[in-house]
Amino acid sequence: MMTKCSMFRAAGITVVMAVALSGVMAGSAYAAYDDMDAVSLSKKLVGKDYAAGEETISKGFDASGMNYYVYKMLDYKMPRALNDQFNMNKPLINSLSNVIEGDVLFFGKDNKPSSSGIYIGNDKIVMASKSKDAVVTYSVNTFRSEFIGARRILSANDQVRAKLVLEAQKYLGTPYVFGAKYGQTQTFDCSSFMKWIFAKNDISLPRVSKDQALEGKLVSKSNLDTGDLVFFTTKDSNGKIGHVGMYIGDGMMVHTYGEGGVKYSTIDSGWWKDHYVTARRVIN
To answer: So what's the pLDDT on residue 60?
Structure first.
């Protein structure tokens, strides 16, 4: 079962967050995906069947079942029934202009929900739709007149994790240049990339990886969380830290190194597993 250390504690996702910022995404086969945050766990369900009363990938989902499944995978407790989800003891967001990735949006009349979806950013929601007989992506505007509120399920730290992954995603494929000048985004090296995406989320890091490895607090590889910095030796670092990436869950990191520039890579096999050194948590 996926824990928070595998999407938001990812990743998967989903967010989003996956989000979420474990079991849903595994191995290097997912290295090409551009939505490895916890919020995006809901995106992975798009195309799955709609099924009344169900909450599993094999049988399908109804609206509340999809919410229940996604947040159970992220290790959050959520009621199963739609009305109970709407009345959860979580912050209530009354305006669509204030929703963020990972919020659960409810639609209906007179504070009685009839449907819901998970907000994934860019005015989009993922919803298990009875009329479409599938999990689909909708524009929020489709249901704007029926909006009755949203619940913010994700913790403040999980929101930061989702934003970090979403920020990193913007630069997939950006070329790698050793010693790239910090402050521009046409090229990155590993540490300038980390410094840039964390700075965009009001977290200040030193410029080089060996100094970044002294920030925050030590975290073991078995307890990695999305947003943790992971450090490695390289063929040119003489056994010392020479590379940094950001863990995004499910044994994956986002980083930049060599051909292909900014990319996803596994840290559980191959080169990066063999050259892993340590990790630091800089999200308070």
So the answer is: 96
Q: Hey, which residues are catalytic here?
A: 190, 243, 255
- C-alpha 44 chain-centroid distance: 12
d(Cα 236, Cα 252) in Å, to the nearest integer?
A: 23
CATH topology of domain 170-281: endopeptidase fold (from Nostoc punctiforme) (3.90.1720)
Tokens representing residue 21 in the block: 């910022």
Pairing of strands 124-129, 134-139: antiparallel
Which residues on neighbouring strands pair with residue 194, listed in sequence order?
A: none
pLDDT in the model for residue 8: 39
Q: 14 in helix, strand or coil? A: coil
User: What is the residue type of 284?
Assistant: N
**79 burial type by CB count under 10 A (0-12 exposed, 13-18 middle, 19+ buried):** middle
Per domain, the residue ranges of the chain are: 4-157, 170-281
Q: Domain 4-157 - what CATH class?
A: alpha beta
CA-CA distance, 100 to 38, in Å (whole number)? 13
Distance CA 138, CA 124 (A): 6
Q: Say if residues 152 and 93 touch (Cβ distance below 8 Å).
A: yes
Question: Has this prediction a pTM greater than 0.70?
Answer: no
Query: How many angstroms separate the CA atoms of 224 and 74, rounded?
Result: 14
Q: What is the pLDDT of residues 192-209, one digit of tens each?
A: 999 999 999 999 999 999
Q: How far apart are CA 246 and CA 253, in angstroms?
A: 5
CB of 198 within 8 A of CB of 192? no
